[in-house]
Fold these 3 entries.
Entry 1:
Amino acid sequence: MDTNGQDSCVLQLDNLPTSYRIRVMAMVADQNMALWARELGVSRQYIYQVVKGTRKNQRIRSHIEKRLGETFWPEKEVQQ
């Protein structure tokens, strides 16, 4: 309970790693990596690798940020 006597069920995403933040926000927004993969013509595994940070494809990153309405990768380095 919070100070007002009400149950507080707010998830603090700021403390989570980027990949977890993206997955949680995608679930809340009724989005998923399979949908993004179909939209972009790539595999789900490739989307997962970008989300996890293994790959740094700017086109995929921009699509994810646009779909979720938040910036996750402020740097502009690109690796395809």
Note: The mean pLDDT is 85.
Entry 2:
Amino acid sequence: MEPVAVDGGTAAALLAALRERGWTVATAESLTGGQVAARLVDVPGASRALRGGVVAYATDAKAEVLGVDATLLAAHGAVHPEVARQMAERVRPLLRADVGLSTTGVAGPEQQDGNSPGTVHVAVATPAGTVVRTLALTGDRAAIRTATCDAVLREALAAVSAAPAGEDPGTPGAATALWRS
């Protein structure tokens, strides 16, 4: 059954799909700085599915708080699809959630670690697996951050909606990697 958004928004539809399955969600955000969690919190009744969020803006915070591999961060920096995958997968057990969402990238205006503004990676970790999407966004800093929130919420809605209702979420964090670009 397709979830129907009460207010027409993706965040509301995602929360409805999560509640239908008895699942919870947590966010691990970098360039969006908490905007994904804020979008979810804007929906009445969000507390029935949202466990919380981590804003790990600094590279070392990604390792120290979320447990992202420090060797990976040293070799590739924070703007990398594997970093997004690890953020989404590791926020699940950290906040005891069934689904983890993550955002990492460059909002601009300067490059970061050799990546141009608009280079973004989002990930969604569910009991069925992890999807990572690489985006090449355009616009100013605010537009890139907004488009990133939109993208991770759409990806999460698709992933959660694809899972059968009533599926046992299993152990948070026990996901496998599925790559999409």
Note: Residues 10-179 form a domain with the Maf protein fold (CATH 3.90.950.20).
Entry 3:
Amino acid sequence: MNKFFFLELLFFAFCSSVFSQERGLLLSNYYSPITYKAKPANWGIVKDSRGVVYFANGSGVLEYDGLNWNLIELPNASKSIN
């Protein structure tokens, strides 16, 4: 009986430690074209060393610094970032 109780206790301790760990959740935000004031299709994404993110968009290049959106208009509305 003591052996059985010890195994149950060990199993319970193992299960509680496994199931008590935090689950990783994907952190993402949705930004509508109304928010960034450009076309809805984005063709490419690049991040620079400062953390600023650039999106190739049908309206030009969108620049996002984490707070503000800036549209850099290009001639011929390029669809890619080289």
Note: The longest helix spans residues 2-19.
